[in-house]
Amino acid sequence: MSTVKTASLRILFSAFLLLIFFCCSEKSADNKNSSTNPEEITFIALSNVGGQLGSYNNIKITQDSIHVERGMTVNQKHSEWHQAISPTIWKNLSFSFKIKDLSLIESSPSIQHLDGMDETFQIKTTKKSHVFVNSYNDKHYRQFEEFKIKIGNIIPKKYQ
Fold first, then answer.
1. Closest CA to 90 of 157, 156, 128, 44
2. Which of 82, 101, 130, 157 is packed most tightly, with the most Cβ within 10 A?
3. pLDDT of residue 23
4. What is the DSSP letter of 62?
5. Residue 22 neighbours by CB under 8 Å, 6+ apart
6. If phi over 0 gives left and psi between -120 and 50 gives alpha, with beta otherwise, what is residue 83?
7. How do residues 23-38 score in pLDDT, each as one tens digit?
8. What is the pTM of this model?
9. 3-state secondary structure the chain
């Protein structure tokens, strides 16, 4: 073989080995990051919107606060309530949901056009955002029920 072919093959082979080395090292770095930074919930929202009178009730929860808006468009009533929450309360609320089940939950069609109320949950994690509309019939809905009970113990009755 000529030295030109041998040199070019060595360069090509070296480049190939370097490419494989960097590909493998990135995967192992990703595995280390995923084990040290597990997926966590960062935001939870629950809204009930619809009905003949245009009622709405929006609850937004972050790691440090709860914000509630409630009203009715037909008579233009609107009220709001805010409160800071402790890390313990946030943990209790966010642990209502099993992150691995979120991608399995299915929504149902909207009933708002029939003068019904749509229940919408929005859950944001460090990796994804999930939105569920009228998921009452899903087998994983129990975690939503538990969350509603917990949040009902925190929010004043007039805002529920």
1. 44
2. 130
3. 65
4. E
5. none
6. beta
7. 665 444 455 444 566 8
8. 0.72
9. CCHHHHHHHHHHHHHHHHHHHHHHHHHHHHHHHHHHCCCCEEEEEEEEEECCCCEEEEEEEECCEEEEEEEECCCCEEEEEEEECCHHHHHHHHCCCCHHHHCCCCCCCCCHHHCCEEEEEEEEECCCEEEEECCCCCCCCHHHHHHHHHHHCCCCHHHC
Distance CA 59, CA 67 (A): 6
Confidence of residue 13 (pLDDT cuts 50, 70, 90): low
Give residue 143's region: left, alpha or beta (phi > 0; psi -120 to 50): alpha
102, two tokens:
């979120």
Closest CA to 136 of 114, 110, 155: 110
pLDDT digits (tens, 9 = 90+) for 43-92: 999 999 988 888 899 999 999 999 999 999 888 999 999 999 999 999 99
Backbone angles phi, psi at 78, to 5 degrees: -150, 135
Residue 114: which pLDDT band, with cuts at 50, 70 and 90?
confident
